[in-house]
């Protein structure tokens, strides 16, 4: 059982859509002329973001997924990153875009980008919908970020708390209602 909580809207569905359109234009400019861009979604939090992002990209794309270990039922990150599900396809010599939901401590993105770099893609770039820069523990930054947010636990638009709230169309912050601070 999780503690009781309410969700306060932080970023509206409309603001997310507008930001994705702008980001897609920048990605298109960077990868213009590519024979194929392999868009790699990090499961499970990026599944809504990747779905909206690829539909804004006017490029030949292939979609693949990779799953790294996450928080489980906690709101605290574990520092050790494990690959639970690897890519189906080869990325050697290919253009690759890694799609992450949130860069928090940075351990996941750092681990995934060094793993994928070792497979010798032609170009590797990363996009994160959200970034919590004040939480960073390792030196890593996505090439594109949707929104910088404060150190708050968020849900919605694919992002969960203990597997709940992924289906909210907006990003909201979790506020525990049993907390005396309210
Ligand atoms: P990092 O390795 O600490 O950067 O954590 C990255 C992963 O932790 C993200 O891909 C999310 O799955 C998860 N995460 C980080 N912050 C949050 C949050 O506020 N809500 C839900 N999941 C989060």
TrEMBL record:
Catalytic activity: IMP + diphosphate = hypoxanthine + 5-phospho-alpha-D-ribose 1-diphosphate; GMP + diphosphate = guanine + 5-phospho-alpha-D-ribose 1-diphosphate
Molecular function GO terms recorded: guanine phosphoribosyltransferase activity; hypoxanthine phosphoribosyltransferase activity; magnesium ion binding; nucleotide binding
EC number: 2.4.2.8
GO cellular component: cytosol
Keywords: Cytoplasm, Glycosyltransferase, Magnesium, Metal-binding, Nucleotide-binding, Purine salvage, Transferase
Pfam families: Pribosyltran (PF00156)
Protein species of origin: Maritimibacter harenae
Principal EC category: transferase
Xref: InterPro entries: HGPRT, Hxn_phspho_trans, PRTase-like, PRTase_dom
The protein's name: Hypoxanthine phosphoribosyltransferase
Taxonomic superkingdom: Bacteria
Primary location group: cytoplasm
Required cofactor names: Mg(2+)
NCBIfam families in the cross-refs: HGPRTase
Compartment annotation: Cytoplasm
Family per record: Belongs to the purine/pyrimidine phosphoribosyltransferase family.
GO biological process, one term: purine ribonucleoside salvage
Phosphoribosyltransferase domain residues: 13-161
Pathway stated in the Swiss-Prot or TrEMBL entry: Purine metabolism; IMP biosynthesis via salvage pathway; IMP from hypoxanthine: step 1/1
């Amino acid at each position: 059982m999780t503690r009781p909580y309410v969700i306060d809207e932080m970023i509206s569905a409309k603001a997310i859509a507008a930001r994705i359109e702008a980001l897609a234009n920048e990605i298109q400019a960077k990868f213009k002329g590519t024979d194929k861009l392999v868009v790699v979604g990090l499961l499970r939090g990026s599944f809504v973001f990747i779905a909206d992002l690829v539909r804004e990209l006017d490029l030949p794309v292939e979609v693949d997924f990779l799953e790294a270990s996450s928080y489980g039922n906690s709101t605290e990150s574990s520092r050790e990153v494990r690959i639970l599900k690897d890519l189906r396809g080869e990325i050697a010599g290919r253009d690759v875009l890694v799609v992450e939901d949130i860069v928090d401590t940075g351990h996941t993105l750092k681990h995934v980008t060094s793993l994928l770099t070792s497979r010798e893609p032609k170009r590797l770039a990363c996009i994160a919908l959200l970034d919590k820069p004040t939480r960073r523990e390792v030196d890593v930054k996505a090439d594109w970020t949707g929104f910088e947010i404060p150190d708050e636990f968020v849900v919605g638009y694919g992002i969960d708390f203990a597997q709940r709230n992924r289906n909210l169309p907006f990003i909201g912050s979790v506020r525990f209602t049993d907390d005396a601070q309210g």
